[in-house]
Amino acid sequence: MDNKKNIPVCKIAKKCSACQLNNMDYERQLNYKQAKAVKLLRRFCRIENIIGMEYPYYYRNKSQTVFKRTSNGKIISGVYKSSTGGITATDDCFLNDKKANEITAYIRTLLPSLKITVYDPTTKKGILRHVTVRTSKATGEYMVILVCALDELQNGDMLTQKLTAKFKEISTIVMTVSKSEKMVSGKSEKILFGNGYIEDILLDKRFRISANSFYQVNSIQTAVLYKKAIEYAGLSGKEKILDAYCGTGTIGICASDNAASIVGVELNESAVKDARINAQINNVKNAVYNTGDAALFMSEQAKKRNCFDVVFVDPPRAGCSTVFLKSLCALMPGRVVYISCDPQTLARDLYFLTKNGYKVQKIQPIDMFPHTGHVETVVLLSRNRAVHYMQLNPEPYEMIKSGQKTIELRLFDEKRSKINTGDEIVFTNTSNGKTLHVVVSKLHRFDSFDELYDSLPLLKCGYTAETIANASSTDMEQYYSVKEQKKYGVIGIEIFQPNETTSETVCFLRSVEF
Question: Which segments within 149-267 are labelled E, that is strand?
Fold first, then answer.
């Protein structure tokens, strides 16, 4: 340790591949990550300066240590090298919490005397695969997770007694069984000590963390990240929020005090269970959590005309699928707050969104994983919404206001081409000057009235079967001659009124002025 700068010196830097940027001082690391974000994302908008850590060491609240017996019979422990399947032996990884390092090192010293064998992936023999230690810096609690290859851990009770006697900070010890060769915990859990979970405090909210819960590994920077995301959401207390990829509900719960409602969706059933528990712990009554595919959920919400003011998107490193992005665009939230852990997949997804009605307003890089090559980014997107103004006679105005099924909007070609999905139309009642705001959710463009009658789902627009059967373009000649019809285009617009329940299409207009 360099006492002058309080910077730890890594003795295994050349052997271990976990810290890709360990050859740089921290300021250079931040400059490197800033340049990476700028290179990939500057075409969308100006990039804010990256937010780093004051002390970027021993920050991980989750450490994973693998054990191995060498050829001479010695048990070593350290960092797993996924590229080779090997181990870099160490008792002091300066990314992990210091006490977590001490706990795993002590476990290694206990194994021989307790006759607990370590798993050998070559011979498929042995019991202990690896050990995970989770901690809460806010509450001071520690959880030890013993990941085993078999259902029974020999002398597990003695191991528990010795650990809890030496480390009073340990509040729970859990054993899980995993058949996988990867560094993952098993689904089956056996509580050896305590209640099987610890709790952390984030932005004044309390969250329960179990053995398999997803939780951001850098608690200090997670608070910075969530503050920025909630700031970008621009909440006034009236917004309906959709939290896609909600995990255990952390960001939605943190934002719940300033929102009208939170709807979370997550594919992992265990995470959804934790989200519901976390909502109860924090007495959050305006949040509902659903198990399911986020893309499918959004698509269904769009079909039901359920609208959201803000959508939080926090996908895995691979980013969002095309299906997800299309569903997001169909849902048409006013603002999207995208939290990304990979600027390369983020650039790909932002390109899609900006081609489909959204504009990038702000981009903020945050260093969540010092000494590694990862860059976390928070992005604010807003829907491009043109506003069109139209005069409307009292009868059709009231039809739209009451949510009745209505007909089509006829405009000159050069006028109708300006209307796009996501635009706002402000109708003014010609009799009293009152206004009605609607949002265009879908467009039907037609070259003729015949095509309109053949294509538009008229039964959903208030027509009867008899009316449809008898309708033709000649019926329009009482308003327009054939020559005038060629001059006009036809557009069917499906609308909804924000925060209200209305349906299908707009009304019939004889003349329109923008």
Answer: 170-177, 188-193, 197-202, 205-210, 240-244, 261-266
Res 19: pLDDT: 86
Query: Would the pTM of this model clear 0.85, i.e. be above it?
Result: no
Instruction: Compute the Cα dihedral for 320, 312, 438, 419 and give only its sign.
Output: negative
Tokens 């340049």 correspond to: 35
Q: Is 307 annotated as catalytic?
A: no
Which one of 307, 329, 341, 507 is the catalytic residue? 341
Q: What is the mean pLDDT of the chain?
A: 82
Does residue 396 register a pLDDT over 90?
no
Which of 127-137 are b and which e, b meaning 16 or more Cβ less than 10 Å from the residue's Cβ?
A: bbbbbbbbbbe
Half-sphere exposure of 161 (CA within 13 A, CB side): 5
Tokens of 461: 């627009």
Element (H, E) at 401: helix 394-401
Torsional sign, CA 157, 159, 164, 165: positive
Q: For a pLDDT cut of 70, what percent of the chain falls above it?
A: 78
CA geometry: angle at 158 spanning 196 and 148, to 5°? 55
Confidence category of residue 407, pLDDT binned at 50, 70, 90: very low
